[in-house]
Amino acid sequence: MERKKQKQAPTFEKQYQEELYYAGKQFYKTLFIIVVLAIILYLTHFLSKGFTVLFAFIGIIMLMATLTYSIGHFVRYLIFKAKGK
């Protein structure tokens, strides 16, 4: 059997390009979490209110963590862009 080639990490000339890349990646993760959370909440509201509240709480925590990373990378992008690094 052939081994799969490992993905090469992207390389960037400037540090602000790297921060923008990771900010975008986190933003797409945020959108994915929102869509999955909406589907889960829609399905669980038929089962019980307790499950809906539980999944809503877990989803909000995950969403806040992902948004924090996304905003952090974007702020770093703005800082490095201003410095020209």
What's the number of extended β-strand segments? 0
Beta-strand share of residues: under 5%
**Helical proportion?**
over 70%
Mean pLDDT: 87
Distance between the termini: 44 Å
Low-confidence stretches: none
> Helix segment count?
2
Helix/strand class: mainly alpha
Structural account:
The protein is mainly alpha-helical. It has two helices and no strands. Helix 1 runs antiparallel to helix 2. The longest helix is centred in the C-terminal third of the chain and has 35 residues. The model has no long low-confidence stretch (mean pLDDT 87).
Itemize the secondary structure elements and their pairings.
Blueprint: H1 15-47, H2 49-83
Helix pairs in contact: 1-2
Summed up:
The chain has helices at 15-47, 49-83. By secondary structure, it is mainly α. Helix 1 runs antiparallel to helix 2.
Q: Which features would summarize this protein structure in a list?
A:
80% helix, 2 helices, mainly alpha, 85 residues, flat
